[in-house]
């Protein structure tokens, strides 16, 4: 890796020659500005406001603009004469616990590399001292024309330095917190804790920039002349007043489902409240059901029917008597049916027989004639 600054770490009377190397890199996709009419690239040229002529880099200096608009030229020689002990030195001023550094102060990150063989011994000494003390070093250094604040800590076997903003560069969070008093119930906190436990930990190396990948695919598709299909935009739900309990509960279930855990939908209801499936809390009037008993009324009806059935049930002797009576009645009915059937058959036979005899006699008379 290419170094961007060479100097030394001042550790008391010990000087450690080092090289400063960028610890991070920017993977953002950069675009050029073009003229929409013909696709020509738009370029910026440095032009002097007085004579309106383009100026080359060697002819450009720096100046401070006063409140009244007056330009005060400042040369590199002027800056070099300033008493800046950290111009080529990272000067350690204190060792403090890491939790004393406000993360809001964190800026760019760098790796410090030992510059040459003689620097290996003091470099290792400082690294091991930081490891054993569980502290970080607060230091001053100068980079790109200004003095800065830094924090030195150990990453694997390397000393890393985080650029820090000066304390007076951190703005107070005035007017940022929600207005008014907001009360959070224990049930809501319990569901929030359950969601945090369900989401659990994550392998930081598995996280990646989905948007950058989508932009790269878009560029590749347009470069090859393919048709780009618009992506489906999900509902972010911004600006909606939600049922917080339902939203938290659904989030826990979704997190469990995504992790393949069993019983994702068997969450207990907290605080005796009904949790709906959606994120919105809709209130509906209770409709009366006609002709169908519900709740206690159906149960009471069932009990009354059972009691009435017990009362109406006859004793064993009565049951036997009624059974025999029923059998006799059934037998007499079947006998009556049989008698009626036989009588009807006889009448039909007799009537049918008489008619047949008359027909036979008439047919005989015709034959003799």
Could you give a short description of this structure?
The chain is built from seven helices and nine strands.
Mean pLDDT: 75
Helix count equals 7
Number of strands: 9
Taken as a percent bin, the fraction of beta residues is 15-25%
Summarize the main sheet: 7 strands, mixed, barrel
Helix content: 25-40%
Please write the string of helix (H) and strand (E) elements.
EEEEHEEHEEEHHHHH
- Major sheet: arrangement of strands: 1-2-6-9-8-7-5
Termini separation: 144 Å
What integer value in Å does the Rg equal? 49 Å
Shape: extended
What oligomeric assembly is this protein in? single chain
**SSE-based structural type:** alpha+beta
Taking pLDDT < 50 over at least 5 consecutive residues as the criterion, the unreliable ranges are 263-337, 339-369
Description:
- The protein has 369 residues and is of the alpha+beta class.
- The chain has helices spanning 76-80, 120-133, 186-199, 210-223, 244-258, 296-312, 316-368; strands at 3-11, 14-22, 62-65, 71-74, 89-97, 106-114, 135-143, 146-155, 158-164.
- Mean pLDDT is 75; it is low at 263-337 and 339-369.
- It is built from seven helices and nine strands.
């Amino acid at each position: 890796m290419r170094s961007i600054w060479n100097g030394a770490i001042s550790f008391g009377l010990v000087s450690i020659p080092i090289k400063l190397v960028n610890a991070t890199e920017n993977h953002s996709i950069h675009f050029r500005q073009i003229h929409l009419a013909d696709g020509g690239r738009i370029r910026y040229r440095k032009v002097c406001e007085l004579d309106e002529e383009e100026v080359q880099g060697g002819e450009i200096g720096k100046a401070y603009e006063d409140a009244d608009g007056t330009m005060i030229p400042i040369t590199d020689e002027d800056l070099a004469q300033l008493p800046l002990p950290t111009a080529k030195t990272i000067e350690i001023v204190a060792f403090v616990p890491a939790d004393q550094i406000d993360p809001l102060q964190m800026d760019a990150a760098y790796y410090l590399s030992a510059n040459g063989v003689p620097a290996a011994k003091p470099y290792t000494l400082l690294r091991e001292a930081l490891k054993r003390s569980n502290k970080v070093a607060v230091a001053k250094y100068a980079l790109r024309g200004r003095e800065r604040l830094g924090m030195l800590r150990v990453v694997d076997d390397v000393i890393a330095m985080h650029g820090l903003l000066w304390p007076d560069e951190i703005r107070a969070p005035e007017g940022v917190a929600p207005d008014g008093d907001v009360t959070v119930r224990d049930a809501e906190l319990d569901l929030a804790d359950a969601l945090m436990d369900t989401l659990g930990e994550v392998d930081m190396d598995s996280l990646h920039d989905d948007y950058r990948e989508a932009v790269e695919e878009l560029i590749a598709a347009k470069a090859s002349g393919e048709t780009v299909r618009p992506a489906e935009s999900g509902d972010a739900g911004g600006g909606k007043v939600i049922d917080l309990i339902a939203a938290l509960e659904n989030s826990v279930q979704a997190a469990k489902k995504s992790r393949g855990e069993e019983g994702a939908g068997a969450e207990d209801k907290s605080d005796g409240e009904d949790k709906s499936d959606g994120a919105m809390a809709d209130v509906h009037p209770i409709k009366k059901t006609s002709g169908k008993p519900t709740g206690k009324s159906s149960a009471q009806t069932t009990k009354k029917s059972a009691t009435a059935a017990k009362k109406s049930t006859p004793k064993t002797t009565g049951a036997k008597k009624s059974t025999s009576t029923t059998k006799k009645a059934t037998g007499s009915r079947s006998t009556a049916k049989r008698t009626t059937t036989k009588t009807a058959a006889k009448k039909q036979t007799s009537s049918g027989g008489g008619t047949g005899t008359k027909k036979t006699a008439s047919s005989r008379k015709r034959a003799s004639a």
